[in-house]
Fold:
Amino acid sequence: IDYRSNLPFFSNMAVHTAINFFFLATAILVVPWVRTASFPFEWKLIGTVAFASLVLIAFFYLFNKSNADFFNSAREEENIHEVLYKSEQIMVRATDMESNSRGFLLTGDKRLLTQFNISRDSARVDLNTLISLTRNDFVLQKRLDTLQKLLSQLIAFEETLHDLKIENKSGEAIRLIEKGIGLTTLRDIWSANKRITSDQNKRLEKNKLVNQQHISRAIRATLFFLAVGALMLMVIYLQVQNNLRARNKAERELEESEEWFATVLSSIGDGVIVTEKNGDIIFMNPASRSLTRW
Structure:
């Protein structure tokens, strides 16, 4: 493992692990206290929902961050593919210029000269697009500057040959070709373009690995999000069920207590009359009814 190159990844995972450990430790410490605390059920429920919301928001943030990083990497990968395509197109245009130029010198067919001009203009457009796509890459900008100079040299050389051909100085044009200036420039363009594509292919491979990491993080965050959400819903459900059981138990005990007291009061020989604060009678045992004849 190359720890130096993977240091940002390990640092990021350390932060995520620390956050998860914090929430887990808080849950372990708080839940027993919540269960034994004498707070009203509504406050317990509100506290549980608030805690669940904080946990879900944290995981939702991690999920969104992983997705944002993935989309940024995807855009960068798309940009790299575009750079590779434009680099290939520049090489095609340069080769077309050279072949059309040689065809014009041999045949004098001006249609080949028109094709040369089309290839020249297309190469310039592709190069400007490359410069625009990589404006934030200082190293690649320097290599594109070199490529631009070489392309300008090739265009200037070929146009010089065209002028000589038009002026019926084919012999002089042939002597310039024999010096190998055009071929050397074309080879230099190939070499410069090869360095650019080599760098971009390396970046592409690295970016694919980064994308895989972002996808893995997004999947883990999603699974954690769903697991924590399900766990919190289960906790809330259990709290509601415990509260219902406790309430039902209290109601049963109250009913049993009332029945017991009614039985006891009904069984004693003394007269017992139970009233409310306003004097309304709510209970009379048989002895009191016999004494009062009510």
In short: Helices lie at 7-36, 41-107, 110-133, 138-166, 170-178, 181-267, 286-292. The chain is about 85% helix and 0% strand. The CA atoms of residues 202 and 208 lie 10 Å apart.
